[in-house]
Each structure stands twice: as C-alpha cells, then as structure tokens.
Amino acid sequence: MVTNPLDYVEPLGKAGASGLGTSKDNWKELIQNIKSHGMRPGVSIKPGTSVEEVYPLCFSLVEAENPVEMVLVMTVEPGFGGQKFMPGMMDKVRILRKKYPSLDIEVDGGLGPSTIDVAASAGANCIVVVYLTTSCNQYPSRQRHKRDDTFNILQL
Ligand SMILES: O=C(CO)[C@@H](O)[C@H](O)COP(=O)(O)O
C-alpha cells in the first residue's frame, strides 16, 4: 500500500510488475493508467474498511470504466509481518466471492499452514505468505479463476 500509487505506475510497469493496486480517490484514472502500462489493477482493503467500499471499483455500469481485477483483503493491519491472522476478515472474502465469482481475491497477513485453508475455503484464490509459497493452482476449487498472468503470490 502506498500513498500516491499514480507515481509508481510507470516505474513498476517498466520493472515488470504484473499488477498494481489503485486507490479510492482517483481510481478511474489509476485503473486506466495501470492497464495502459500492461498491468492488472487491484485494490486493497484494510481491516477497518468495510467491503462495501470496493463495490464501485469491482463492477462498472459504464463500458468505458474498467473495474479492478483483484481485491486484496488485508488480514492484519498493514505495516509489518508476524501479526496474527484476523479470521473476522473472512466474511469480506465470502461476500466478495459470492458477489464476484471470477474476481481474484487475495489475502495478506498471518497466512501459514494453519490459516491458508481457512482463507481458501472462504473464497480467496491468492495467498500472500512470507516463508511458505503456494499458489492458486494448488486449490482445485479455485482453478476456474486461474489465469496465466494472475498475481498468485507476492513472496517477501
Ligand atoms: O503488513 C503487510 C504489508 O504491509 C503484510 O504483507 C505482512 O508483511 C505479512 O506478513 P506475515 O503476516 O505473513 O508475517
């Protein structure tokens, strides 16, 4: 998560990033910009942010307005590793999966052997972990969401 994502679009695109998060304020411009640099747009929600906040970014009634392709549900407060997974965030994942069956839903924070299944069962298909690397491909029920250019894993 960064304060001014627009500043990072070009350098990250040139560096080879496949996806970049947008922000709430100028998301339409950002999504266009991210796509024009060959990346997939996503959005992150912190634990205190309600899931309803991302609805306008996930579905567009106007053809010219592109929605995000991924929502990252933070399962800890962003900032540092080693925090405890927040199971209460799984309601957000379940709601998003039901509402947007083909959306890439990522979870980040406190993920490991004891929590990955919880997140995957709720509907997450991309998992961020620090030491353990897995991917959407390992969850057969989620393979329908698999794409070659998916974000998969952000390995720190
Ligand atoms: O805080 C962030 C990003 O700001 C997370 O990406 C954590 O760094 C995840 O670390 P673990 O919970 O997996 O240790």
UniProtKB/TrEMBL annotation:
Cofactor(s) required, per the database record: Mn(2+); Fe(2+); Zn(2+)
Protein name, UniProt field: ribulose-phosphate 3-epimerase
Annotated keywords: Carbohydrate metabolism, Iron, Isomerase, Manganese, Metal-binding, Zinc
Single Gene Ontology MF annotation: D-ribulose-phosphate 3-epimerase activity
Similarity-based family: Belongs to the ribulose-phosphate 3-epimerase family.
UniProt xrefs under Pfam families: Ribul_P_3_epim
Biological processes, Gene Ontology terms: carbohydrate metabolic process; pentose-phosphate shunt, non-oxidative branch
Family matches, as InterPro entries: Aldolase_TIM, Ribul_P_3_epim-like, RibuloseP-bd_barrel
Catalytic activity: D-ribulose 5-phosphate = D-xylulose 5-phosphate
GO cellular component, one term: cytosol
Top class in the EC scheme: isomerase
Protein function: Catalyzes the reversible epimerization of D-ribulose 5-phosphate to D-xylulose 5-phosphate.
Keyword Membrane: no
Assigned EC number: 5.1.3.1
Quaternary state and interactors: Homodimer.
